[in-house]
Write a structure and sequence with these properties.
422 residues, Rossmann fold, six-stranded mixed β-sheet, 12 strands
């Protein structure tokens, strides 16, 4: 206490305060680490050659006590409330696991990286038991710096509120997890500048591949290609882009939907398309128009373009209903159809007694809507599987020729469609 007061009178910092204290703490850390290193060297190399003398055990205990004493003292000096800082310094290593299991570090690596080299079953069990006992976790960052791959993928979708993209993301994440990859997901909100920023961000994080449900702009797709990261597009591809892609052919399901409605006597059928300029929305609207034209039912005033959202569906349905009586409405997404149902409830229209509705996507939301929606089904699980296969091919083979996978759609009939009321 006398020394502390003397230091303060002389204007000198107390050893536990300020830059002086930090410097001393660093020096103490270095001294303890040196001691621990010498103890580990003695216990692993000297002690085994002198089995009659149990000094190795004594020194290991001594080392542990010194570490604990140092940790407690450091907590008192610096006000640490938990062991995290020292625990990080004393991270369990592969060498620690090897010593506990009585094998070389290389064998530990073989066990933790299946497929590298065969390991005897008994040895594998010892290594895994040591991993569990010590709580060893491989350093993913260090592994990526050594081997290159980060075992991570990037996924860009326009929205996580739209149930189609939510389910698609979930399916891709599940497949990625099964194959040992972590999936990073970004919602672009259909904004080209936001999409571009995500591309650069994922590239900076060194993802092994990028899956993109693109916006109307090709800038982000070009930027992704410039980074050298393998790219696969999903659900939609900007015109003129030469990248591997997975899409669906909506024409078969759409034609089946129009046939279903005409068989029930519908002749005045409204079309709720997606936003102008979006490739997938243009294609679906064109398919609705072709199917209605072939049936002799197309009229220019029966089509309205709207956002892929609940509000877009409600507003679009309102516009169509104001244009004149119709007996059926087809939409370009489930979320639009749910918005259209909201508008029907607001107007007092009964579905399907007064208006039949067909949606597109067939997500889980379609089967739980009231009434349950008749829908053109996109095969979400198959889309995710095809996408993951393309991604793994691109990662494994590097630069390959672009390929295009087109999956069919089908019609699922439920409660939202019925015959025209007499």
């Amino acid at each position: 206490m006398f020394l502390l007061r003397k230091q303060r009178r002389q204007g000198r910092p107390h050893r536990r305060c300020g830059a002086y204290g930090q410097r001393e703490s660093a020096e103490r850390t270095t001294r303890v680490n040196r001691f621990a290193t010498r103890v580990d060297h003695w216990t692993t190399r000297v002690a085994p050659s002198t089995p009659a003398r149990p000094w190795g055990t004594v020194l290991m205990v001594t080392s542990a006590r010194v570490r604990a004493s140092f940790h407690n003292d450091r907590e008192a000096d610096e006000g640490l409330s938990g062991p995290c800082s020292w625990g990080e310094m004393m991270r369990v290593t592969r060498a620690d696991v090897a010593r506990r299991a009585g094998v070389s570090p290389a064998v530990v690596s073989y066990v933790l990286n299946p497929g590298s080299r065969p390991v005897a079953a008994a040895t594998r069990e010892r290594v895994l038991a040591a991993v569990t006992e010590l709580g060893y976790r491989p350093d993913a960052v260090a592994q990526s710096l050594r081997s290159g791959p980060t075992r991570s993928l990037g996924l860009l979708v326009p929205s996580l509120v739209n149930p189609f993209f939510a389910e698609l993301s979930r399916s891709i994440e599940s497949l990625a997890f099964e194959r040992g990859y972590v999936l990073l997901v970004g919602s672009t909100e259909a904004a080209a500048d936001r999409e571009l920023r995500y591309v650069h961000s994922f590239a900076d994080r060194r993802v092994d591949a990028l899956i993109m449900v693109t916006s109307t702009s090709a800038d982000a797709l070009k930027a992704a290609g410039d980074t050298g990261v393998p790219v696969v597009t999903l659900d939609r591809t900007p015109n003129g882009s030469a990248v591997s892609s997975v899409i669906t052919d909506g024409s078969a399901g759409i034609r089946a939907a129009i046939d279903h409605l005409t068989e029930h006597g519908h002749r005045r059928i409204g079309v709720l398309g997606g936003p102008d300029g979006l490739t997938v929305a243009d294609e679906r609207t064109a398919a609705w128009r072709t199917a209605l034209s072939d049936a002799g039912l197309w009229e220019d005033d029966v089509c309205v373009r709207a956002a892929f959202s609940r509000r877009g569906g409600a507003d679009g349905a309102s516009v169509l209903l104001e244009r004149g009586p119709m007996t059926a409405l087809v939409t370009s997404s489930d979320v639009q159809a749910i918005g259209a149902l909201d508008e029907c409830i607001r107007r007092g229209l009964r579905v399907p007694q007064e208006l039949s509705i067909v949606s597109f996507d067939d997500t889980e939301a379609a089967s739980y809507a009231q009434p349950r929606l008749t829908a053109v089904q996109q095969p979400i699980e198959q889309m995710a599987e095809a996408t993951m296969e393309l991604v793994l091919q691109r990662i494994g083979a590097g630069e390959t020729a672009a390929s295009r996978h087109v999956l069919p759609t089908t019609l699922v009939v439920r409660d939202s469609t019925g015959p025209v009321r007499a």
